Amino acid sequence: MKNFILLSLALLFFSHIYSQNNFTVDAGDQAYDFIGINEHGEEIKLSDYNGKKYILLNFTATYCGPCWGTYNQMNKVQEKYKNELKVISFHWDDAKEQWNKMAKRANIDFKCTSIWDAKNKDEISKIYQIDGWPYFFLIDKKGTIVEKWFGNNEKRLDRKLIKYL
To answer: What DSSP letter does each residue of 117-143 carry, written as one string?
Structure first.
């Protein structure tokens, strides 16, 4: 009996560890909360906006061509829905200086929150199942992912925001 209990506890422990390593989120799930450092060096968490605003979380990369088409769109929706929506751009790479040079050349003044640094960036990308850029998640005021989509499509972005906001 003692061996059975020990074996059961060991199986429970290892199954818990295994399930944590394969944890992912999708539409309908609670968003994975992480701490990121914004462009001003301040720590922010997704849960900081629970009960206050929807979040449009965009995963992007400096050398992603389609991503560059999203920045002005995100500026527009941030302004249009400023009382209801917080736009956060999670930059997968660490090329902040290069991004700034490219933005200046493209005449882009990105006014939304940018996260350039976060603990466990690779783990966050795996949890959100990021396999390309740009990737969008619309998160409601309760912290639930209500929409998830891939690619730069301004009309799709507008339709999804109109549906919820």
So the answer is: EETTHHHHHHHTT--SS-EEEEE-TTS
Cβ 126 vs Cβ 36: under 8 Å: no
Average pLDDT value over all residues in the chain = 89
> Would you state the structure tokens that stand for residue 125, as one six-digit string?
């990308």
Model pLDDT, residue 119: 86
Q: What is the pLDDT of residues 94-127, one digit of tens each?
A: 899 999 999 999 999 999 999 999 989 999 999 9
Would you say residue 32 lies in a domain? yes
pTM, whole model, 2 decimals? 0.85
CA distance 129 to 23: 10
CATH number of the domain bearing residue 44? 3.40.30.10
The total of structural domains in the chain comes to: 1
Range of the domain at 50: 23-164
Tell me if residue 146 falls in helix, strand or coil: strand
- Rounded distance between C-alpha atoms, residue 130 and residue 50, angstroms: 23
**Residue 12 resides in a domain:** no
* Residue entry with tokens 């730069």: 152
Cα separations (Å) of 132 from 26, 84, 141, 147? 15, 27, 26, 17
